[in-house]
Structures are given as C-alpha cells and as structure tokens.
Design goal:
The protein is built from 5 helices and no strands. By secondary structure, the protein is mostly helical. It has one domain. The longest helix is centred in the middle third of the chain and has 15 residues.
C-alpha cells in the first residue's frame, strides 16, 4: 500500500534538513506507533522496515524509547534460537 501526504513547500525544505527523507521518517513513525500500540509485532516491524536482523529492529525500537513487548511465540522462538546456538 502506498500512502501519500502533502507538506507545504515552505516547510518541506526545513523538515528535510532536519529529518532527511520525509517519506521514510513518516513510515518509521507509523511503524513505531504501531508496535507501541500493539498493532504490529516485532516481526512485522522488521518486515515493513526491511531490516535484515532482529537486533536491527530491536535497536530501532530502543532508539525511540520503546520497550520490547514480546509475545509468547517470540519468546519461544528466542529460546529455540539460543538452544540451537549452544549446540
């Protein structure tokens, strides 16, 4: 899905100077809010943002002051990965 929004030209330049790519910044804000409000899982955040590792996604959330809320399935997945890494 594509989402478009308009920013007055007189403000767009200032916002781009401060935040860089406004489309990417908006996507990141929506995804962060989606996770914070439990509308998205960690895996969905990773998929939407195109992160290659879970750690990258966790850092993205941490940088925004968002605590990880792991589902039971995610906890089991982490435990399974830890067991496999030890063997």
């Amino acid at each position: 899905m594509d989402v478009a929004f308009s920013v007055p030209d007189r403000l767009a330049g200032r916002l781009q100077e401060r935040f860089g790519d406004l489309s990417e910044r908006a996507l990141q804000a929506i995804v962060a809010d989606g996770y914070r409000e439990e509308a998205l899982t960690l895996g969905e955040v990773r998929e939407i943002l195109g992160h290659s590792t879970r750690m990258e996604t966790e850092q993205f959330l941490k940088d925004r002051g968002i605590l990880l809320e792991m589902t039971e399935e995610e906890l089991e997945e982490d435990a399974r990965a830890a067991r496999e890494a030890r063997s």
